[in-house]
Amino acid sequence: MRRLKNHTNKERGAAGVMVALLMLVLIGAGAMAVDVGQIYAERAQLQNVADAGAMAAAQRCHKAGGCTVAQATAWAAELSGPNSNDGATTIDSVDLSVPHQVTVVTSTRDGTSGAGFLTKLFASALNAPPVTVGAHATASVGTPPGATAFPLAFSDCSYDLSAAAATGAVQLIKYKPGRGSCTSTSGHVIPGGFGWLNQSAPCEAGTTSGGIAGSDPGADYAAECNAVLTTWKNKILAGESVEGTFPVYDDAGGTGHSGWLHVRGYATFKMIGWRFSGSGDPQVFRSGMPDVVNVANVCNNPCRGIIGQFVRFESIDSAGGPPGTGPDLGSVIIQLIK
User: Fold this and answer.
1) Is residue 201 classed exposed, middle or buried when 0-12, 13-18 and 19+ CB atoms within 10 A define those classes?
2) pLDDT at 227 over 90
3) Which segments of the chain does DSSP mark as H helices, in order?
4) In terms of DSSP bridges, do strands 152-155 and 243-253 run parallel, antiparallel, or are they unpaired?
5) pTM score above 0.90
């Protein structure tokens, strides 16, 4: 019995050592999990800062017509605090070497000590080195690759927004008023004004930059568009601005249902009034005096036209995607590409 008792005590001692070792392993694994979680959390914050900084710098650089690295860095740094839990992030670098792109690189900075590494890591008890985390993001400024919108396209003859202007002059754009002297980039004479597009859905037409769009030969729009015009009218009467981004064509050809327009790019037009038919609501809205200030912009029957002005427009799209290949006609998409 004495031997059996001594053997049991030895087993208990061995079990105690095993439990102690397992506790060390479990504590170490827990500490590692906490450390890794802290690293991932820091990485997510840094990515938020890089994304927001790249988008903000790209937008402000575009509005300014260009910028320096110092300016872009300052604009990106303005968002380092609001997008970090400790209110601090280091903007390591800003790259403007690729035209129409801004790349922002961020790294860890402690909001209290200013240290460039993560503190209070459990792994420090194991004499592990401090950890620095980083992230980067690239935002691009590009033209729309395509659109599905109200089935209308403006002639390049009517586009008047210069590179230095935020808005163009208020003008009356008539439905194909004649060929005149406006020519395309290939030298072909094109009709001025605007043209209707073949619909791909009720009151919608899909187009792509640099592509060919089918042209509707009629002078009147489809009845399905009444709802859209009513919405525009109500917004204008409520004092709101109605702006639409439309394709701009620089070449046209064909006849009847075989007519076509070549899409040069996209421009945004602010609607003020229109006359799409002889009479009726909402086909006719603020097309004459006294709503029209300039008598040259009055559109009385049998006129068919749109009264408004081209404006600059920026669309923020974080989803990303390839930009269009057309020229910058004042309407751009600012988006994250990586």
Assistant:
1) exposed
2) yes
3) 2-63, 69-77, 226-237
4) parallel
5) no
